[in-house]
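ok so heres the complex, four chains, lmk if somethin looks off
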Amino acid sequence: MAIDPSADRPVYKQLADLIRARIEQGELRPGQRLPAESDYVAEFGISRDSVRRAMAVLRGEGLIDTQLRGSRVRDAGEAVTVPIAHGTSLMARMPTEPERKELGMAEGIPILVITSPDGETRLLPADQTIIEVSDQG
Amino acid sequence: MAIDPSADRPVYKQLADLIRARIEQGELRPGQRLPAESDYVAEFGISRDSVRRAMAVLRGEGLIDTQLRGSRVRDAGEAVTVPIAHGTSLMARMPTEPERKELGMAEGIPILVITSPDGETRLLPADQTIIEVSDQG
DNA sequence: AGCGATTTGTTCGTATGTATA
DNA sequence: TTATACATACGAACAAATCGC
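and the predicted structre for the whole thing:
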């Protein structure tokens, strides 16, 4: 139930699993503030370092967003449906830190690299984009 | 050139920038072993904590892969071109830690979620996949 | 087969800085 | 201004896996 420091799985991953489950089960809803790091320290008797690692895992998964004021469950937000046409190719990767800053993206969000038949490329934040294959570009 | 602890940018991000530049410039090639954490500690006179944070940044960007034996520059590898047809929709996100383990993926690699017109979904590791829009699925 | 050295993984502690309420 | 909460950075210790001898 709680966290077992003697378990095989590291404490911070156990906590990440626990919080992730609470998010997926709707116990923590999008936009909602998570308890402070110190709350988790007190609740489970673990170090702040372990709590911060757990938060870093969840940020890396794009599940939470941490500002200076605390962490919140990320809102799925409104994704724009982008139509792409025949001959277009597409891939996804993580942005580098400078790219991420440039695009004003949160952590844990991939970018879509869309290459048109003419060779032109677009970078789109994946959390705001749904690709739909259409007849016409 | 080196790392300036008094700079605005955090030490670990400075180191990440430095190593990333070496990778992008080909000074560190795909498959090549990076210096050990202790080497960077000695080279720049920074803490191991900062070095590990820098490595975590680069792992999160999918640029390096760290095993117990050390970190290596990730090989671009062969991506399979997957054709998708009209009516298919697509999005990308980071896998959760359990998903990542399940799919046997390295850190810092997004997954492509492809939904066919019939509602069937496929999960594909983004580093092995290039999407190509074709007439026929 | 063993055994030590290397290297990363985890976890604690402490301290200081910075932004927000 | 004070209190809260996260960000960065140092140090220390031990565990676990791997490699070379």
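quick notes: Residues 98 and 104 of chain B are 10 Å apart (CA to CA). thats all i got rn
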